[in-house]
Design goal:
about 300 residues, D-Maltodextrin-Binding Protein, domain 2, five-stranded mixed sheet, about 25% strand, LysR_HTH_N, LysR family transcriptional regulator, transcription
């Protein structure tokens, strides 16, 4: 299959009557355009353009090929115009409640990309661990960790994350590594949670599941700080695999009790069923889901 980008560049060169003018109009180096078209000709096995030191002209087969490339180019522009028109139609304010433990840098990146795609959207983001009232407090969406309590709210699964127990080599050297979940009772733990969170971790899956207690060294509602304290040898922490990929690869954090895999946790986008689902809510949840399920290795909300 021919390179679509090469076809578009070829059509641009023909319309501009040369490489130099096409380079100015497109904003790409002349050498890049020339190389791309040469690659296209090699792929097709034909000469599309006759070149000399001063002029560029179409070959006979090039003229026929250009008609199709030009038609495709206009179709692509029309398709882009439809999408841009749709994006411009989605507007209005969105008030969103986000847990404090979400990375503000990552969520800021998401919102920036979303507003670039939908320029008529206005966002009001509040980081809070309070159980916000969507209707009473005027929120359109709340990002929540599962499991969720039954309510008249609608919950859409956004993504899953795989948690695991981790510790630094320094901590293990000083305190050893627990051999069983029951051994955690003698170990320091760094607890990610609110003031109501108890020093208990649910380990294992399905019927092979146990509740393990530990000595709470620190409780904090920032996963970034939990990871920092774990790296500094203060205790064992439960963090997501995604948020610690680099540290695991470098050996700065190591798995604890890997034979007790933990059930993944769900992250939901919650909205009220009392109102008609607005297009801007749909757009945000769609964008959120696609960004974090297809690009998990790029960012983690719990990093």
């Amino acid at each position: 299959m021919a390179d679509l980008n090469g076809m578009m560049l070829f059509a641009a060169v023909v319309r501009a009557n040369g490489f130099s003018q096409a380079a100015r109009e497109i904003g790409q180096p002349k050498s890049t355009i020339s190389r791309k078209i040469a690659q296209l000709e090699e792929q097709l096995g034909v000469r599309l353009l006759q070149r000399d030191t001063r002029n560029v002209s179409l070959t006979q087969i090039g003229a026929l090929y250009y008609q199709h490339c030009d038609s495709i180019s206009h179709e692509i522009e029309a398709a882009k115009a439809v999408i841009e028109s749709t994006h411009n139609d989605i507007s209005g304010a969105l008030r969103i409640a986000v847990p404090v433990s979400f990375s503000q840098e990552v969520f800021g990146h998401l919102c920036s990309s979303f507003m670039h795609l939908y320029p008529n959207i206005e966002l009001d983001i509040q980081f809070t661990d309070n159980d916000v009232g969507l209707v009473g407090e005027g929120y359109d969406i709340a990002i929540k960790f599962g499991p969720l309590q039954s309510s008249d709210l609608v919950a859409r699964l956004l993504f899953q994350r795989q948690p695991m127990l981790l510790a630094s080599p320094g901590y293990i050297k000083k305190f050893s590594s627990p051999a069983t979940p029951q051994d955690l009772v003698n170990h320091r733990g760094i607890l990610l949670g609110s003031t109501l969170s108890a020093p208990i971790w649910a380990l294992g899956k399905g019927q092979r599941k146990t509740m393990a207690t530990f000595k709470r060294k620190v409780r904090v509602n920032s996963s970034n700080m939990v990871k920092r304290l774990a790296l500094d040898d203060y205790g064992i922490a439960m963090l997501t695999h995604t948020s610690c990929k680099q540290e695991l690869a470098a050996g700065r954090l190591v798995p604890i009790l890997p034979e007790w895999p933990i059930e993944p946790f769900n992250v939901y986008g919650v909205y009220s069923s009392r109102r008609q689902l607005a297009s801007n809510i749909v757009a945000f949840l769609d964008f959120f889901t696609k960004r974090y399920t297809s690009q998990e290795s790029l960012y983690s909300m719990m990093s």
